[in-house]
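are you around this afternoon, could really use another pair of eyes. what follows is a protein written twice so to speak, once as letters and once as structure tokens for the fold. i want to understand how the tokens follow from the sequence so walk me through it. anything you notice is useful, everything is just below.
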Amino acid sequence: MSDSSSMTFEQRREAGRAMRLDTPRISLADLVDRPTHYDPIGELIAQGEDRVQSLLPIRYARMLESPFAFYRGAALLMADDLSRGTSTTLDVQICGDAHLSNFGVFSSPERQLVFDVNDFDETEIGPFEWDVKRLVTSLAIASEQLGHRASQQENIAAAAAHEYRTAMADFSLMSRLEVWYATLDLASAMKELRGFFSSPERVRIDDIFRRVKSKGPESAFTRVVVYENGIPKFVNRPPHFMALTSNGDSHLGREDVDEIVTNYVTTLSSDRQALLRQFEIRDVARHVVGVGSVGTECLAVLLVGRTEHDLLLLQIKEAQTSVVTRARGLTSTFEPGDRVVRGQRMMQATPDVLLGWHTLEQKVPRRSFYVRQLYDDKASIDFSALDEPLLIAYARVCAWTLARAHARSGRSAEIAGYLGKNRRFDEAMASFALQYQKRNESDFHAMRDAVQQGRLRVHA
């Protein structure tokens, strides 16, 4: 059943060690210069060509809020940069956009709050270190934005890399099933963070997660759903929620929504299919969220079950070619929506029970979508509430979670063997993070210049 079943654990770990000869760990610190005529703003403009054009000014405005916001929207640029640099051949299912804001809390099928990676638009098979670099760089950028010195930024990035390395070593010693069922519930995350701090700091930790826990689906429904003559509908709150007909350049109509919801159900297990067929659509709205994905089709669907107060909210989100696939010059073997669903099911310990996908094959060009619950106790932490010690602790939680997600691909022994027991990998990741933080800031200022020059239009 396994292509490595003939290899012992020691053989797999030794194979990982041997990879250091071709790809020394210190070489992962290198940030290769871009081609002379590389235009980062041009790349972002090209990425938006097949998106909803009226939404792109919103995307650009959100990216210009800060260097970190720009980084969130510039996964394509980083994938391009990583593709030109040194990479290992230790491919696993990667997130493709593993920055710190793409980790968060949501409900498991058992309604337990868990902490995990929560965005998979760019998921693909790729080198494990691409995700690690994306994470540690996001930490360096967040640290710089909080006013930390370069030495503090380096310390935070190195702490995350260290946690990833030691966690992967631990996962490599676990059985396959132990890795598969490993989760980090909210209580464990709180315990992990509390362990580093004095009593006053622990109160702050509790407060951070208490705010996360307080945001359940019921409170989310009251914010986005109103009743008119007893019938529920979405609030009109541009640009977050807008009527589907209010955007003339949309690629989707109500009939497309009906097709997606009707047919995506076939990608679910039989019991989930039975559950979804007990609901019917009441309303649809355009839903503009995030940064990097703004401009792709994203819709919120309101369904009712037994009564008009028995609500279910689904999100239909367009999936396109991942930045990882594009940067590596490869072709995915799966429809984009299928790719996202496969990646999420592989990397998340407790994926959404209503996660599925559908492709509108009659569209020109054809468009692929994945569907998930819109609100499922989902919440992420605002890093601006974290000082240096708290950011380090949060970085460790994210790094452990990323290592567990990667370990599910079955190559933990090889990766652990490659990473080793000393700090060379940690130092390489920290060095890369500081270099890329500067490149990201340069790109951020280039985008500002592009707006001033009239090359980009932003939403006021």
Remarks:
- Residues 129 and 186 are 26 Å apart (CA to CA).
- The longest helix spans residues 424-452.
- The chain is about 50% helix and 15% strand.
- The longest strand covers residues 311-319.
